[in-house]
Write the structure tokens for this entry.
Amino acid sequence: MLKELLRAIDEALAGQWDTAHRIVQNHETDAAACWIHAVLHKIEGDLGNSSYWYRRAGKPALLDRDAWDELRQIKTELEAQHAKR
């Protein structure tokens, strides 16, 4: 699943919102996937839905934070988790 989430972030950073969204929808019980999902909806401009996914992720809804920086942060955190394995 970690590889898929990293791919979702890469797709989002490349402007492939729909592909990234489809990937995270397959992992809706995972907190990291929910966090990515929140950022994707922030990019889309759907802040209500974004707030919902932030809650599901257990993260504060920082709706004014730059989405691209946030995706890069998530990627860094996921890669660090992967390196520990």
